[in-house]
Amino acid sequence: MNRLLVVDFETTGSHPRQGDSIIQIGAVAIDDGQVTDSLSTLVNPGQPIPPFITQLTGITDEMVADAPTLEEVFPRLLRLLDGRAFVAHNASFDLQFLQEALLSQGYYAFDGYVLDTVELSRLILPTQNSYRLGELASDLEIAHDHPHQADSDAMATAELFLHLMNILKSLPLVTIQRLQMLVSSFRSDIGSLLRFIEMEKLVSIPEMDAEPGKNDGEEMWDVYRQLALRKREEKLTASLKPQRRAETPMSPFSEMLEGIIGERGSLPVRVAGYQRREAQEAMMNAVFDAMQDGVHLLVEAGTGTGKSLGYLIPGIIWAKQNQQPLVVSTNTIQLQEQLFHKEILTLQQTLPFDFRASTLKGRGNYLCLRKFEQALEEPVEGSSQEMRMVKGQMLVWLTQTRTGDVEELSMPPAGQLFWQQVKSDTGSCLNRACPWFSRCYYFQAKERARDAEVLIVNHALLISDLQAESRILPPYEVAIIDEAHHLEDAATQHLGKQFTTTQLLFLFDRASVEPDGALTRYVAEWESWLGSPQSSLQEQLAALVPLSARMREKAQYWTQLLYAWASDRAEETTDAGRETVRYRAESFTGKHERIRKSTRKLIESMTAFAEGMEKLLEGVPVEEKPPFAVSSLRTDLSGLLGDWQKVVELLHFFLLEQDPQYVYWMEVESRTARKQVHLSAALLDVSESLAEPLFGQKRSLILTSATLTVKNSFSYVMNRFGLDKLPENRVRTLALPSPFAYDQQGLLLIPSDFPAPGKDSDQAYFEAVVQGCIDVVQATKGRTMILLTSHSMLRMVYQAMKERFAESGESYTLLGHGIDSNNRSKLVGLFQTIERSVLLGTSSFWEGVDIPGEALSSLVIVRLPFTPPNHPVYQGRADFLKAEGKNAFMSLALPQAVIMFKQGVGRLIRHQLDRGVVIVFDTRIVESRYGRSFLQSLPPYQVESGPWPELRERIEPFLGMTTLPDS
């Protein structure tokens, strides 16, 4: 393992046995951790290179016309490969071409070690968002100037491999040994590599022992119960706890504010580029006054206001003056992290007093070390390679994480299921009786939250705390809800209920009666402790075997019925690639009554099995305290029984006795072969759930967003949040305009000659959209983001644009969400760095994307972002409103669409020097009666409407202006 050859082939296709050939070879030799030799050559494949390969690699037929043949090149490659391990990124691809070439030329097949840097990266870099070579190279700052060219790919892969080796060699011995138990079935020879590193470490231990304090793990690792954890620096690690300064009496707010943001204040002095803004200062005063007066405040703060500091500075000052904790809630965990690590850190360095800050997430976000230890004890044989990979990733992650927060991990679907087995939860927690208690990630997070003066949470946890009657968060009286336009959606999600057929099967797997299952291991542990077979336990276990088989049979039949019913009726309404269908109790009558019957039979079967499990747990002696292995398994099985009861209740709720306060629907996967069914239910009206426990009970809540008004009125969000049920003097509103000169910086173009989007003209509309997008991209030389309202439309537009650019020979890089990557941050990063690029996104790109400067110069909105009329939650709420005599379109669909439209348009002008063009390809915005609601809710852009051939000529001159016109 000290001698390796890193190889990359560019080829005419993916199937060497069907005639595809190598067109370029890149190879890099590594000896004892150093690059010692390399090979780079084009290869004449003896056949034309397909156009898409030329587009991908830049290699043309002309370039390989005079290149050597494979027969001429191979001897040198084989001399380099002799005695070396074969390394490649996605090694199975390159290896199949190597083996086919060897056999076709009369050589023996390669039988040496094979290492795959994709597999190795997944194992060793568990927090990485993507394992594509280009994105790995970018993140790890590895030079990779020519992606999809073999010489550049091979050198980047070699650098990646050396980086991975350095990490592996730095891991503690116990982690290396644990990993070896998991990788035996991996496609590449990672097990041999780990054995090589283990031997190196074992050989070096005597030398390390000679120097006190240098033992493996002593400096960085906390090795406990055969697991290595990253050492905690102190009890409050990962909360922002500044050096203590001498406390000074608090001045009045106006004086303190001047000392912070004034000409000689701490912010201008310490934060480069900080400018005092009138709107931000107005927000600061309004937030402080609302907290002081004990009222709620809604603030719409336009882009560029400096919203985060606008609420944090007054909020922290008020909390400090009144010795009360301040809770700040954001919409997503990503925003939570950004706020914590950026704005809070800045304020800790600039405010004239100390304050402690921390984050807290839902309990299920944290790893339970006891459960993970137990999962590692499960037999490796029989578990899937993907599950072994997940366990390996988490072993490595434990040496890196300080928080144990699942958000740090990048896991495959199998990992997300495994997480349900090892996450922290109340039902299976041993608390202080757990040997891992002092190291427990969740209790450490809770401790930090209790000590914090500023606690950053997310909307999901805020809502969960309401459900749990305030037992999750420390007591608080004031809170700031950022991105407040998402509060209703968060409440809908977290006050609703969800269940999947996959969860059911996973629950059954946790109660497996197989030889390596939890119940069998439980009995074995008891017998091992007591020193003799226990006939009563064996009888109870044996009685569960036929019950388990019948239960699984009924579950399979039930799943098939449910999937068949849902897939026959479902339509695409979500961005997740799922199709949905709303249902009611009466949906399952007549010939579909068998769904309800099979649900009852499944519940009966599950109940019988649960009773058998209870008997097994009760049938053990309790006179003596059992060892930890026994009590740990018993705790997990007791927790499993609790989960079992919840699932039975959910089956009843979803299919037998439905609650009229909820809307019900099913989702099925439309683009995979997995026959899963997702069942969901949402409250028709969440305002009651927010009005009293949240707004009625708290002293002061500040709700802020860039988009809270529709046609300059807060009435829509007031109604949806239940704020209109409070006395008028308990709620204030404030709308702050953006400081940007939109009338000079932005141009809004609306073609009047486009077909209207609708079923009668779908093809004509689609053709017009594709050509319109191409026109915009050509006018702006890329630098364009295209916002769409469905994944199916995105895929169609993406493919059509790609084909037309290929036909015309124009070179643009298209970046499609869900096509080139599922990671939004990665796509945005690529868009900002790749010239002549185009970014296509759906709902998650309409907000939270910040691309200042010339990288984004034009924004195309293909359709107005109305919720699909067949979306179950919209349908249910529309019916609810109609029953109250209200117009569902005007009071629900239109305001929702306007707010999202405002968010989308807000992606363009992000800085006072930005300049850009918004193009809306939906003529309803000028032709319909409701269209003015969209235009009246926007900042004062220059707006032009007319024939597209005329409008598109306005784009380039507008963007090409070097100075802004006089106001």
Automatic annotation (TrEMBL):
E.C. no: 3.1.-.-
Swiss-Prot/TrEMBL keywords: ATP-binding, DNA-binding, Exonuclease, Helicase, Hydrolase, Iron, Iron-sulfur, Isomerase, Metal-binding, Nuclease, Nucleotide-binding
The organism's place on the tree of life at top rank: Bacteria
Binding-site positions, ATP: 301-308
GO molecular function list: DNA helicase activity; hydrolase activity
Chain span(s) of sequence motif DEAH box: 482-485
Domain Helicase ATP-binding: 266-536
Cited function: 3'-5' exonuclease.
NCBIfam families linked to this entry: dinG_rel (TIGR01407), dnaq (TIGR00573), PRK08074.1 (NF005981)
Protein family per UniProt: Belongs to the helicase family. DinG subfamily. Type 2 sub-subfamily.
PANTHER family: DNA REPAIR DEAD HELICASE RAD3/XP-D SUBFAMILY MEMBER, REGULATOR OF TELOMERE ELONGATION HELICASE 1
Protein name per the record: 3'-5' exonuclease DinG
Species for this entry: Brevibacillus brevis (Bacillus brevis)
